Amino acid sequence: METYLDRILDRHRAEADKDNRIFSELFERAARSPLPRGFLKSLQTDGLSVIAEVKRKSPSKGSLAIDLDPSELAKKYEIGGAACVSVLTDTESFGGSPRDLQTVRESVALPVLRKDFTVHEFDILDARIMGADAVLLIAAALVDEELKRFHDLAKELELDVLVEVHDEIELERALSVGSDLVGVNQRDLFTFEVDHERALRMGDLIAGSVTSVAESGVRDVADAATLAQAGFDAVLVGEILVTSEAPDVLVRAMTEVDLCL
Predict the structure, then answer these.
(1) Bridge-partner residues for 58, per DSSP?
(2) Structural domains in the chain, sorted by start
(3) Which helix (H) or strand (E) segment is 158 a member of?
(4) Taking CA atoms, which of 104, 121, 134, 156 is between 20 and 30 Å from 27?
């Protein structure tokens, strides 16, 4: 049975197959782009860091904030104390675009993650060109050779790499390629259902060996506090922020949960 993830990946791979740009030329352009601003370093602070997301819609819930202003939203995130911003650049499934990412980078000083489905080297080169400071690699979407090749290319371009995992096997795969930034996605990418116990189960396994991020399904400040107690260095939060009337206040409250533990 085909899943959400299968359909999204098939679409991205079909688009990549039609891309006839020349790698060496694109690499040279990427290497000449402005230097990344240190996504990982921004997360390596005391307390819980917040990666605040610019997300217009989702495959499971449809429109969330389809007409959001990425510049104004990112500025509120920065005022609230977010460490970084995540920007969806997938158009069909998430309503995002490279322009959203470029707008955010121009609007705030925070490092920016290109949140998308990386299936080809060009995705990484494009990320650097559009101004991203980090890229996402989803372990479930890549075979081992792709995971290592894409990870190494991103590092060569001085991009930080968030490797997303869902279980112990994927965590081992992430660590085997030298990942220093691992995200545990509480959302099952095959069903898009959220398992709120997933990150708690995985937290002890990571145990400070790398910088850790809990992704998806953070419903409120209490969830953020629970994840901080479980040992996560950061939370990646989207839906509740883009639908909030005061995202800056909500971000601030999440960054301060460690003070209450």
Answers:
(1) 62
(2) 4-260 (3.20.20.70)
(3) none
(4) 104
- 102-105 contacts: CB < 8 A, separation 24 or more? 102/130, 102/131, 103/70, 103/71, 103/74, 104/54, 104/70, 104/71, 104/74, 105/131, 105/132
Q: Tokens for 119, please give them.
A: 């299936």
Residue 63, token pair as written in the block: 């429109």
How far, in Å, are 83, 159, 244 from residue 142 at the CA level?
28, 19, 34
> How many Å apart are CA 109 and CA 21, to the nearest integer?
31
pLDDT digits (tens, 9 = 90+) for 22-61: 999 999 999 999 999 999 999 998 899 999 999 999 887 8
pTM check: above 0.85: yes
> Catalytic residue positions?
53, 55, 115, 164, 185, 215-216
